[in-house]
Design goal:
Helix content: over 70%
Structural class: mainly alpha
Order of helices and strands: HHHHHHH
Largest sheet: none
Radius of gyration: 21 Å
Strand content: under 5%
Number of strands: 0
């Protein structure tokens, strides 16, 4: 009989813990994301949606700008997960590749720019703790991580673009490569 009572109690505890986690999001990450969303929309409103779309068009025309520069700037300026929202200005065909590249930027740039992905900072701090315990400076490692990440993120974006072309062919569909401004 104790087994059934413990099982029921633990089952209900699962929902209690889930509720506590939800409350921590409501008081932690959700307001941050909301404020970043407000900031991004304010910047877009001030600069003009056409100017932001023009920047995306320029960046989309070159793979280095498309998978290194725009994702890096998005990650640096907006952090994770808001950096992903810049993909809304890209044509449908490039969205999967942009997503692949920008999500990696949110990880590989964390050593130098911890604000990009504060929720995963513990990974970098674990590595940095080991380096510091050896009496070494963490800056060269962070710079190498960033530089290798830039190249790896470019490759990731390009590989996803190649995969998107294969899926298009296999599925017999063509994703739009045209730029569209919302509401037009």
């Amino acid at each position: 009989m104790n087994f059934i009572v413990n099982l029921a109690s633990n089952f209900m505890n699962l929902f209690t813990l889930g509720g506590e986690q939800f409350l921590s999001w409501v008081s932690g990450i959700i307001p941050t994301i909301l404020m970043l969303l407000v900031l991004m929309n304010a910047i877009i409103a001030l600069a003009g949606e056409e100017a932001v779309a023009r920047l995306a068009r320029i960046c989309t025309g070159n793979p280095i700008l498309r998978y290194m520069v725009l994702p890096f700037v998005s990650a640096f300026m907006l952090g994770n997960p808001m950096a992903l929202s810049m993909g809304k200005f890209m044509p449908e065909f490039y969205k999967p590749s942009f997503y692949a590249s920008v999500t990696y930027h949110c990880h590989t740039n964390n050593g130098i720019f911890p604000h990009i992905n504060a929720s995963e900072l513990f990974i970098w701090l674990g590595i940095a703790n080991g380096i510091t315990a050896l009496g070494l400076d963490t800056t060269p490692l962070a710079v190498r991580y960033l530089l290798v990440g830039l190249i790896a993120n470019l490759i990731s974006g390009w590989a996803t673009e190649f995969t998107t072309k294969l899926v298009e062919k296999q599925q017999g569909v063509t994703l739009s490569r045209e730029f569209k401004i919302a509401g037009k």
